[in-house]
Amino acid sequence: MLRLLRFLKPYSWNIFGVVAFLFGQSIASLYLPTLMADIVDNGMMSGDIGYIWRFGVYMLIVAFGSSICSVIGSYLSALTGVGFGRDIRNRVFVHVENYSLHEFDKYGTASLITRATNDITQVQTVLVMGLRFMIFSPIMMVGGIIMALVKDRHLTLVLLAALPFMIIFMGIVAGVIVPMFGKMQARLDRVNLVLRENLTGIRVIRAFNRQRSENARFEVANRELTDVSIWVNKIMAMMQPIMMLIMNVTTLAIIWYGGLRVGQNFLQIGDMMAFLQYAMLIMFSIIMVAIMFIMIPRAQASAVRINEVLDLKPEIVDPVLAKQPGDQRGQVEFQDVTFSYPGAEMAAISHISFAAGPGEVTAIIGGTGSGKSTLINLIPRFYDIDSGCILVDGVDVREMTMHDLRRRIGFVPQTPILFSGTIAENVRYGKDDASDEEVTYAAEVAQASEFIVALPDGYDSEVAQGGTNLSGGQKQRLSIARALVRKPGIYILDEAFSALDFKTDARLRAALKKETTASTVIIVAQRVGTVMDADRIIVLDGGQIVGIGKHRDLLDTCQVYREIVSSQLSEEEIAG
Question: Which pTM was predicted?
Fold first, then answer.
């Protein structure tokens, strides 16, 4: 928790203002019972109406000043807390954006969402309340004890007997509740995970009639969170009546013992009433401080989770001294590259070597799990390799800034991802300053203009979250248009044609060939028809290259490629 407070530095003046105004409120609040005692003892007892009016006006002025200080202090504390939460949320978001795919896998999307929302809200809430009560309550408690001693030292013995009971009880409650807060956040993670999987996979769930089992799975996660929350709230609910009982017993003791002292002329009635108010201020202050100490551990558990995210340094970072590529454009070369996923027993790909240059189409084909997508994910440096070297435009990708590397690449992922917004905005995602003509041209090359102009609003048509209002083929073509509008030196197309019919596939590949004559094109595909015209076909099996060459050459030299072709084409098509 303390480590996060370093982000409060921009709000130093706000915090100073909170302290100043709450100190003023405390002084005014402590002075009010003394004014009331003077009115009772010196005004009412003597029947001096003028004295009552004069000091009554003083009381109103002091009370009004206390209220003004309270409002301003509360406003500044809320401003500080909300601003702090905004800054932390921004820092977490920016930091997570720099994670490699391995770091994302470590925490999981659901947990990262909880940490960036609920956990930060917990810390923010405690900060807002803490700025108020952790400043106001101690002043009131210490000031109340001093004023109570001034009024009657003997009567203070009642407080001396009651306060330890309150403190011990609050300590026991905190000791029982604190360990449960970490469990609450972990179970909230689980609820978010199940909920997110159900919302994103609703079509699959309905297709397999799994609504009941998914409802049961969510019910289990929800019940686990509910049980912990109920248990914690039972303890909190028990705390209030016990604290009120201690306060009321203390009040009765003060009235009884104070009445005896009034009867013995050791204490005036007004002073006893003032003492009673100071006692209430002291005990309420202890309760507020105790509640804060109970809330702080939950915020501490959240702060630990936030710090875990901020402390996890991305494995893939820019080099200190980055190199700038020369005049080469679109050159990609793998030199004996080996890569394995973290924790894996075997390498995903091993000893991969090939080169691809501008004006060439390099196709990668192989069975499921052969390492095709893994290989191309290494080019934009989504992962770092174990050994070997990957050169882009003659420079090792680890010696370039990620911005410089990735701006040279037009990437179309295996699963097309679209963002909420218009179709034009999604195409411009590849190039922020793309003109309307560039957007239209990219869509035409990607064979997407036909279905776009048929939409009611054309390029201004809204895309639903995740592109759920578009078909798989339409999403793939928009993803290709997004890469084309960038006009990069390297195109990486990972199963970019899998959802297209053969006719659209052929038209798109013909249009791409004309558009990418000066660029390097790397295609990952399962269809033989998509790769057979490539300048170079790389056949992967078990993470290793088992064949490189053109279609005809590989039919004669590569058994794996021949098996793939035979499974998709007839003997006549192969011979033709």
Answer: 0.72
